[in-house]
Design a protein that fits this description.
The chain is α/β, with parallel strands linked by helices. It has 2 helices and 3 strands, in the order βαββα. Strands 1-2-3 form a 3-stranded parallel sheet, with helices on both faces. The longest helix is centred in the last third of the chain and has 15 residues, at 59-73. The protein is globular.
Length: 76
Amino acid sequence: MDTNRIALITGASSGIGKQAAIDLRKNGYLVYGAARRKENMKDLEEYDIRTIAMDITSEESVVGCVNTILSAEGRI
């Protein structure tokens, strides 16, 4: 895995967000997939995509998500 490239994809539980997460992962990115319901992203684990709960309508949720990734990776 090329850990020089880290991406956070919102809306990763379905549609364009899910496909973007998969495509970026296939292209060597370390991907964090975010959505309100983490349980809806279980299938992304088979691609080695890290899933995280985040509600983009909640500043507290967004800040918490970003801080979690920054703590783990040092950057996004």
